[in-house]
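Quick start: read one record
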Amino acid sequence: MFLVSLVVRARSGKALMSDGGLLNEIGEARTALAPAGKVFVHGEYWDAVSDSPVELGAQVRVVSRDGMKLRVEPTS
């Protein structure tokens, strides 16, 4: 019964791979984005593209997701 309750709780959590799961999440640029590079968002590394240059270590906000690539913008 204990294992069943754990499975039910795990299945009822928010799915991060949905289109809305990563929107507006804040992450960190792990490489410079000019315009593409790597970001660390919600415990995972993602390929990302930014319209404005982003320096290594800067915070970024997720604007959208296209497959396995995120479109991000620098936070102010």
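The helical segments are 2-11.
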